[in-house]
Fold these 3 entries.
Entry 1:
Amino acid sequence: MPTIYDAIKNDHDAHRDLLATIADGSKTKAARKKAWEDFYHDVKAHAAAEEETFYSKLISKTWGQDTARHSVHEHQQLDDLMEDLNKTAIDADGWLDKFNTLHHDYNHHIDEEEDEVFTRARDVISTDELEGYGSRFLKRKEEEAGLIDKKKADKLED
Ligand SMILES: [Fe+2]
Ligand SMILES: [Fe+2]
């Protein structure tokens, strides 16, 4: 089992690649659209799993509270931006400008998680707990991804 840090970092690396594909004008529209859909779904499940299995622990300790609150607040802002982008086609007017903002803000968010947040968490989560947190994160993320798919299917049926 990966540690919680490796599990989160693996996702971030995949997100960095997807963001680069979406931003790459030399790629086909279909490839960029597919990368956007993958990014949108994976980040939703990733953020929910982070909040429930990682930030919930950090927020329970004085040492991690401010950092955890700051990151969870950024999740909300990023989610608003993602919802906004998901409403229109990727070649719609203004889409790329908004996406560039998301690209910048998301990279800032994950760099901060891997740096400041992980540093704080090291004082809150002991070494022998790291794989347990990693497996709970992955399990929660999988459940959340299932819920997102279900929500999408329900919407299509309406
Ligand atoms: Fe996050
Ligand atoms: Fe993250």
Entry 2:
Amino acid sequence: MLLTENEAKFKFCPLLKTRDDKMKMCMGSQCMYWRWENENAPEKGYCGVAGKPVAVSGA
Ligand code: SF4
């Protein structure tokens, strides 16, 4: 799923949890897993945990 960084920050992260086990929101480019669709024009990106989305992989 390609998203702007601001859109991603309103999606739950599959890895991050609070101390009381509640899900946390995506950290966008502050996270090492965040990948930009195009590094030269960083408008949209995705979470690299699930691999490349179809729109990026060309499949
Ligand atoms: S990019 Fe990082 S913070 Fe965002 S959903 Fe993926 S693992 Fe979580």
Entry 3:
Amino acid sequence: MDDAGACPLPSGHVDAVIVGAGAAGLSLACHLASVGWGDRVLLVDDGSRPVEQRSWAWWSTGAELLAASASTAADYLWVAGDGWRRRLALAPYSYRRITGPELSGVTEGLMSARPGYQRLVGSVRTLVPDGTGCRVAIESPGPSGTRTVEISARWVFDSVGVGGSLRPPASHAYLDFHGLRVEAPTTDAFDPQTVTLMDFRTDQSTGVAFMYVLPTSTRHALVERTVFAHADTDDREAQSALHEAHVRRYLDRHVGRGPWRVTGREIGTIPLQRGPVPAAVDPVIPIGARAGMVKASTGYGFDRIQRHSSAIASCLIRGRSPAHAMPSRRWSDALDAALLRVIREDPAAAVAILSALLKRNPAPRILAFLDEDASILDQFRLFATLPLMPFVRAHAGAVRGRR
Ligand SMILES: Cc1cc2nc3c(=O)[nH]c(=O)nc-3n(C[C@H](O)[C@H](O)[C@H](O)COP(=O)(O)OP(=O)(O)OC[C@H]3O[C@@H](n4cnc5c(N)ncnc54)[C@H](O)[C@@H]3O)c2cc1C
């Protein structure tokens, strides 16, 4: 210990350093600990994105490691558009939400069963592969200033892009969202068993937009408006004011009479479409958003992160390289790119496609398709319900653009 009172810095050799303890880092630590891999694993986070204020939603059949740790699980979805509204039964899926503290807590629990696992507050500065693994330089705050340590790791799982070497190019498509946490005047305003996944009954003049309602009780919910945007906005204040007016209008028109008490706000962007993701090359394996885990057409990444984490753990416990854990997603990436192109070039057609998807298919088929789990037959059934011409035009445009 080089500073009295500071937590001891690791030294020597570790089996793995996980860079970043957000969704991907915490999930991977859970999966590695649960399969019992590794004697020494270090999970490092600099605190720049505290998990306390974060949460992740996803749908699943509940088989994955973290499903039981989610505090919210709904069994129905509302989907709606102009002149139509549909309540879908999700079984065998549930729509879940895990908060940052819940994810952090389950990670602590699993790590405590593995004495060689350690969490460290610190900033990973450099990664230098050296033939047998990687030298990792970490700066960590202590009572009398920053301490620096260099350790060697057999594997590095990087959700950050340390030093820019693994940083993918900037995104050119975003989900731009603005949510209000509201408290209703009565106790029967929301059904906690039913999440509004996509409701297009909101202004579409600045791009494809939809409302999302996540109830946390019969009186409380997050009510959010999301727009597919093509650039990160320059004027967030103006954009937020506009969004908020639409959220309030939606509440009054489609949820119920106020007064609504606003207890918090969730505002942000999710980058959707980046260039090629950095390759997983021994000993540095990208994870999380930087490894392309955020699906370009939906902005959801948590389920993909779980699958990647599970596949990495499975490779390692079998003595295989975790570089093989990345699935090929050429077909779904091509579909996502085509949909984003339609969204950009023909927003009305995009709303028609998404509405047909939600109106004419059972929920399990839609969710399996979005998860890239649908059988060929189910994909065929699903495509048969969609207006496909906009896709054909988008694909033709993309091919022309490549020439
Ligand atoms: C606002 C927002 C909301 C989202 N909501 C959902 C959702 O509900 N459901 C879903 O499926 N997907 C969601 N996504 C998509 C995706 O699941 C998340 O982006 C997810 O958090 C990605 O995980 P990650 O670990 O790659 O990144 P992060 O969760 O951001 O974790 C990165 C971590 O690295 C740390 N860090 C940064 N630099 C350093 C450094 N030098 N050294 C050490 N640590 C460092 C940060 O503090 C952070 O904790 C959302 C994305 C955004 C942007």
